[in-house]
Amino acid sequence: VGVAISTSTPQRKPSMNRTKAGHGLFNKPRISSLLHIILAALLLQHIIFEMVIQRMKIRMSWMTSALPGSVFPDSDIYHLRSSNRGIKQEPTVSGTDPASHQVKHNSKDQGSELSTDSSSPPMESGGSRSVDQKKRKMFPEVQYVLYDYKFGQFNNQVAALLVALTTVRLYTPNATLVLPPVTMGRESRAQFDGEGTNQTQSVFRIVGDLLDNQELAKIASVIQYDEFQKSGVGNQVQHARQCVKDQWIRSSEHNSSIAVHRDTYGMQNLRDLLWESNESKGESKCIRFRESYIRAALACSELPTVLLLPKTFGAMSRSCVTDYPDMGMLMKHLIPRQELRQSVEEFFETMPHPVLGIHIRLLTDGNRACLRQKFESFRRVVDYLVTTYETRFQSARSIFLAYDPSDSDLEKLFNAFVAVFSPTKRVLSCADIPNCGKKRSTWTSGMSGEEFSSIFRSPYSMALMDMWALTRSELFIGTKDSTFSINVERWRSTMTVPLAKSSLNRGAVMIDPLKWECPS
């Protein structure tokens, strides 16, 4: 028997559990790869789930803080100025004082690009992605912002303040806004029969005397202009070269931006900044002075920690407060001082609801002439409005009219409303509200005459109570192109109140005198 001896490795028979190629389902390398893929997928799923949950928490906490007076969510966004919740008293120059400029996130160099996720509030429920949610240039070195406020009467100045506040919030996260005084107009002198205006106070503060400083302090760092002037930085600003785009108003050279900054803030070394807007290239008109302007102004000035803005009035598009969530959020807290709101809200508790609020203003002499020519009598004006806005008038149980009582035509129109509706509806004006009219609320009994007068008899106090009454009315008809009506509509659109859910309250309803079609 011959025996064959081989030095080669004997071949094993194929296993039933393997494929011919030796790379079947139960191959160890394949099992290891599949396990890695499964673990990676599970980890990714977990990360996405956590992100969704966190996003929902932020959104829910923001929704619960929609009303004025509420507490904001505990987020870095609202701790930008956590150590300075009120009016600033002692500005600093260097920006290193932790008691005045405490910021949690890390600031980058001038013009650095930061995501708004860490510098602006979350979108409210139902909002769309807007301009201020995209990446933008930030200027953390700016400590103080001053703006040209002098354009028209009070509601124009409120609009200018809103834009200035929004600009600060969007682009200068460490800055404090300097609040200017209030410019008086003819309508501000229209107060109460036999009582007149408060003549003992020549300068009124837009925030404090008229708007609620405690509400504003929750979301912004501000300082009064006279306090700023007395500070070290204020003294430096008066002598250092500063640059601002000079915007002129043809009616008066004293209303140019250079004149306003010089006369209000005592600046002696101002330069005209040669800068052109890019609005024609699609740049938003809501916030006109953005990255390019800020960069140019700071480069031109000797004190780059202070930014001067030209006239900020002009962003009166009603969509601005929704296009810019920051602007809408600020508008919620840019509201009348607490005593004025309380007077209106207590009175509204006694009124039959729904309330139809109406603001009528004759913007031009042509509007006034047209009204007289087209309608011949004020009773016919009422008939025209009832026909045009029939559903609103039918739904209302009370009618509140806001108007300038010094305007004899509008006073006659109010009397015509009373004559038409008094048998079936209550027709009221600010004169019927305690503290706005001659009657005083019981809770004012502890006030001295001077204190009461400083609150309720100052210029624009009556206008603010009118505006708050229109804001709290279930239904609203305003006047097109009036900043009074537009600011009311902005309050109504940004506040979470039951009346906003009414189908009749969706969208603006504005009287347009230009459509009266009067012969020229």
Automatic annotation (TrEMBL):
Residue ranges crossing the lipid bilayer per the database entry: 34-53
Biased composition (Polar residues): 1-18, 85-99, 112-130
The entry's keywords: Carbohydrate metabolism, Endoplasmic reticulum, Fucose metabolism, Membrane, Transferase, Transmembrane, Transmembrane helix
Gene Ontology molecular functions: peptide-O-fucosyltransferase activity
Subcellular location(s) per record: Endoplasmic reticulum
GO cellular component: endoplasmic reticulum
Pathway(s) this gene product operates in, as recorded in its UniProt entry: Protein modification; protein glycosylation
Superkingdom of the organism of origin: Eukaryota
A family per Pfam: O-FucT
GO BP annotations, alphabetical order: fucose metabolic process
UniProt entry tagged with the keyword Repeat: no
Region ranges (Disordered): 1-22, 85-134
Statement: the UniProt record of this protein carries the keyword Transferase: yes
InterPro entries, A to Z: GDP-Fuc_O-FucTrfase, OFUT2-like
Similarity field: Belongs to the glycosyltransferase 68 family.
Full protein name: GDP-fucose protein O-fucosyltransferase 2
